[in-house]
Amino acid sequence: MELVCPAGSLPALKNAVDNGADAVYFGFRDSTNARQFAGLNLNDKRAAEGIGYAHSKGARVFCAINTYPQPRGWQQWTTAVDRAASLGVDAIILADMGLLDYAANRYPDLPRHLSVQGSATSYEALQFYKDTFDIRRAVLPRVLSLDQVKGVAKHSPVELEVFAFGSLCIMAEGRCYLSSYLTDESPNSKGACSPAKAVRWEETADGSLESRLNDVLIDRYARGEPAGYPTLCKGRFEVEGDVYHAIEEPVSLNTLDLLPELKDLGISAVKIEGRQRSPAYIADVARTWRQALDRLDSGPDFAVDPAWQSTLAGLSEGGLTTLGAYHRKWK
Amino acid sequence: MMKLSLGPILWFWSKQTVFDFYGKAAEWPVDTIYLGEAVCSRRRELKPDDWFDLARDLKACGKEVVLSTQTLIESEADLRRLRRICDQHEFVVEANDQSAMQVAMRNGIPFVTGPSMNVYNVPTLKVLARQGLQGWNLPVELGRDTLEELISGLQAEGLDLPAEVFAWGFLPLAWSSRCFTARHYNLPKDNCEFRCLEHPDGMEVRSRENQELFRINGTSTLSGSRYDLMRELPDMKRMGVSTVRLSPEHQGMDEVVNRFDQVRRGETPVTDPLQLVEAPPCNGYWYGKPGMELV
Questions:
Q1: Interface mutation vs chain B, best among A32, A106, A122, A173, most B CBs within 10 Å
Q2: HEC string of A183-224?
Q3: Domain locations along chain B
């Protein structure tokens, strides 16, 4: 299985490659990709340097152009595809059907991966994307259980990549408009969820800390309680008198335990989420997963090293990890 | 005249409630009715044959009937239900996922795309038109300016693809494999006791400052405020919108339909206020603002 790591910056890209990534993925510095953060992502010059570096070390580079262009932005998105092609990336990661069509016609030899934002959760959907746009690979949304992944993998007409580690989206990706409902930006439209520009932190008179998104109270932390970024689906809300994480707790996805099963299913690649993370984080995560994948390939008795788990737990949201939807009980 | 449609029932209602609802809807001035379960695979108060019977009855009453499909397809059982819906040649299918488009295309069934399908630009519509697309819904997060560009872009391409706009009701905003209703009751999804039946309008999710944010409804999350584009109908008509979608609620729907019917005919509605579930109105998306806002 291929280890695919995020490259939100040139130092992160180099750290990923140096620590064992088989492939890295990046986006341009605009809303054409699903991790639009100030100061993040690569301009053409940096991208060219990163691609050169990765290729010199035998790693592949994918470019994510995985948001949904509206009519007035159309040309910016096709230009992003043109730029990626002329930079010599090894594949482009797309979600929009119009853009997939553009890329398939204009650059038939440039491999196309279906982004997780393309919301393909069944082999019928994969067949649609294969027949219509000749995609080579698809990234599966993080909503399927392991049994369901098995069902998809058995009949999949394309290579599959699954999420292995990082932030956990619990909604079917590509079809979640919660962020644009509270703010004016969503992953689909602007490549942003719960955008930083809408975040406000406030300390109240009693010493508690409040996190707000476009003025909406997402969470309130007692003095000394660890506080997390106000991703709107991970706040504490009230439902019929109960205040709790009504949608999801602030935890990270970690599938180390599932590696043997994923390998048996013929999954082609495991993906690390986190282009917004620091180069040091990327180095630690890439190194840990490289060790795990090497151990997996070295023999039949794979066992998760407790040191890997503690490294990954230390890098996770709230110090907690979950198997997410892969584990049926989570649902 | 613009058409009025009733979207699929997004909530979980008992079989009798569903039959009663459509019994009345047969008399309402709506042109198109979308039938079927679009949210959760565990909601089977109506069997596939019940839906087909209902579809034929409503068709006999002069309604245009479209069969809706589940939005998040996860399992082989989901695909079996989907194939069943597409194994007929009487009705158009509303594809709410690429899986449905694939099966409809293979069977040669005409389809329209629902509001959860990501139709954000004209090239996307051109691709789908080649595959048998008959009409499309504007994704809920897109506003009037984008809609206008899409419609004029289609006209420039010489493509006749009728546009439908979700114009009234709680906005479907997200789908998950997790059931939030079961989670509220600390029940496993596979043994949820069908608690959604107790919440015909979903369950309110409020901030700790008592602000209505969302409505959880099984595996789906809807807006906490009710989208209402009634006063935008003249604008939609000018733009060339074909159909205005109203999303079913279990009370007061006849009033809603009558009001929209009056407005599409250019009359001013007189009935006021509406007897409906309490929820603030919103229309932010239409104006390119946060969806929850009211302009």
A1: A122
A2: CCCCHHHHCCCCCHHHEEEEECCCCCEEEEECCEEEEEECCC
A3: 3-171+226-287
10-residue mean pLDDT series, chain B (295 residues): 98 98 98 98 96 98 98 96 96 98 96 98 97 97 98 97 98 96 94 96 97 98 97 96 97 94 85 66 97 97
Domains and CATH numbers, chain A: 2-168+251-330 (3.20.20.70), 193-244 (no CATH)
Supply the DSSP string of B114-172, one letter for each residue: -TTS---SHHHHHHHHHHTEEEEEPPTT--HHHHHHHHHHHHHTT----EEEEEEEEEE
Interface contact flag, B72 A143, Cβ < 8 Å: yes
127-186 of B, contacting A, C-beta below 8 A: 127-128, 131, 139-142, 146, 149-150, 153, 171, 173-180, 183-184
Cα–Cα dist A238/A175, whole Å: 24
Name the DSSP letter for residue B197.
Answer: G
At the fourth CATH level, the homologous superfamily of domain B3-171+226-287 is: Phosphoenolpyruvate-binding domains (3.20.20.60)
Between the two ends of chain A, the Cα-to-Cα distance in Å is 27
